[in-house]
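Closing statement on the 8-iodo-guanine sub-project.
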Amino acid sequence: MTHSLSNETTQAANDAAKRAAATLRAITNVQQHDVAVVLGSGWVPAAELLGITTAEFPVTDLPGFAPPAVEGHAGRFRSIDADGTRVLAFLGRTHLYEELGVDAVTHAVRTAHFAGCQTIILTNGCGGLDPHWRPGTPVLIKDHINLTGISPLHGAHFVDLTNLYSERLREMCKEIEPSLPEGIYCQFRGPMYETPAEIGMVRAIGGTLVGMSTALEAIVARSLGMQILGISLVTNAAAGMTGEPLNHEEVLAAGQAAATRMGELLGKVVRAL
Ligand code: 8IG
């Protein structure tokens, strides 16, 4: 039982999330959410297609959430009814590069757990190393490599990370959309994108996706016993692959273009859970 290994810092993070979950229940009037969805760069427009929104608030209405730092990250949450499945969607997330600490980065995950969610879908916009993945290509995360140099866990908390990104959930996605490829997601601290040499390193160690989120959140979700699905939207070729510089506007544009497809996919997945 992972909780028996919790130290006081873990306890404090979980207590803060329990308070957020209590406020969430009170203001949404939904006692139990079933599945959480974290919508990253480029994914926010897909939220419309998940189901019927029954409540929407800024995340800052919940205790412990930081205001948004990045354009295109709305910093809101929604309670959504997807044919009876109660979805808790976070539109935007807190990133490590905001320097608010790992507990701020994982507060939404812990909150979702204490709100009742047994499954979490982590999405992100990222760079892709496979030249076949045009901007706007969704890729299932098969595994990750944490290149941030830090852990989101506190104390001697030994957590198994095998089959972190549920094979069952990946297979479910492939039944819905058989063309979905799989990739290995490498989380960097950011906020700078990689150098071409760093992308060479990623390729050498077996990474195929590069981003600034998700891995630390997945680790905490596993520590809490949640089922995890990770889906990246490749919004740009990784640095040095095209001869073009990277820019944030292209990221947002790729998300807009892929929003309908992403929303339909997520809507089908949450209903199939
Ligand atoms: I969107 O190419 C997006 N996020 N680290 N590298 C990293 N993060 C990203 C990238 C990228 N594209």
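The chain is about 30% helix and 25% strand. With this model delivered, the sub-project is considered complete and its resources will be redirected to Aim 3.
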